C-alpha cells in the first residue's frame, strides 16, 4: 500500500482548544492509523499484519462505540469510516489512549470506500449504527440505506457475513427493514422477519443515548448474506 501522506492539520477537535503539539501528534497518528481513498483497493492483511475477522463500521461519529468494540475484541480487526473530522480526531486520540493496534480509519464517504477500497467477499461484518435519518420526505433520497447500497454491501461481505443496523427513528428503521427485506441475497435473523431485541454486544452509542433522552425507541436489525 502506498504511504499515508495526508496531513490531518485541519483536525481541530474544539476550535482554539488544541495546542500545536497536540495537532502535531494527531498528524502523526493519522500517518499511522489513517487510510486514504486515493490508495485504492486495500490489502488489509498487509495493513493489520495478519488475517483476522474484519468489521467495517459506517459513520462512527465520535467513535465511543467503535473504540469500545475494538478494545473488547483484540483478536479482530476494525475499519471505521466517518466523514466528520472531529469524529476522526476523537477516534485517533482513543486509538492512542487505549493502544489499539486493530483499528484503522477512513475519513471520507463510506460509499466511496466500499466501491474503491474494499475487495469483494472480504468483510465478516458491517455495522451501521444510527445513520442520519433525513426526516423530511424530500431528503429521503439522501438516506444511505437504499436498494443499490444493499447490493453493493452484499458483494463486499463474505457469504454468511453479517450486516447489523440500528436506528432510533422508527420511520427510518421501517425503511431499512423494507429495503433489506426486499433486497436479494439477504436473510433477516429475526424469526418473525422484523426487528431484533437490542443485542448486548452493541455498545451504547452517543446517538442512541440521545435517542433515549428524546424518548425514541431503539430498533436493531441483523441480516446475513446468504448468497
Ligand atoms: C447520527 S450520527 C451516528 C454516529 C454514531 N454511529 C452513533 O451512533 O453515535 C451519523 C454519522 O454518520 C456519519 N456519516 C453520514 N453519512 C456518511 C457517509 N456516507 N460515510 C461516512 N460517514 C457518514 C456522520 O458524519 C455522522 O457522524
TrEMBL record:
Top enzyme class, one word, equals: transferase
Tell me which UniProt keywords the record has, alphabetically: Methyltransferase, S-adenosyl-L-methionine, Transferase, tRNA processing
Pathway(s) it belongs to: tRNA modification; N(7)-methylguanine-tRNA biosynthesis
Keyword S-adenosyl-L-methionine among UniProt keywords: yes
- List of residues binding substrate: 136, 168, 205-208
Ligand binding (S-adenosyl-L-methionine): 57, 82, 109, 132
Q: What is its EC number?
A: 2.1.1.33
Give the matching Gene3D superfamilies: Vaccinia Virus protein VP39 (3.40.50.150)
The GO terms this record gives for MF are:
tRNA (guanine(46)-N7)-methyltransferase activity
Q: Which reaction does it catalyse?
A: guanosine(46) in tRNA + S-adenosyl-L-methionine = N(7)-methylguanosine(46) in tRNA + S-adenosyl-L-homocysteine
Q: Which positions carry the signal peptide feature in this UniProt record? A: none
Question: What does the UniProt function comment say about this protein?
Answer: Catalyzes the formation of N(7)-methylguanine at position 46 (m7G46) in tRNA.
Family assignment? Belongs to the class I-like SAM-binding methyltransferase superfamily. TrmB family.
Q: What is this protein called?
A: tRNA (guanine-N(7)-)-methyltransferase
Per the UniProt entry, what species is this protein from, by scientific name? Ventosimonas gracilis
What gene, per UniProt, encodes this protein?
A: trmB
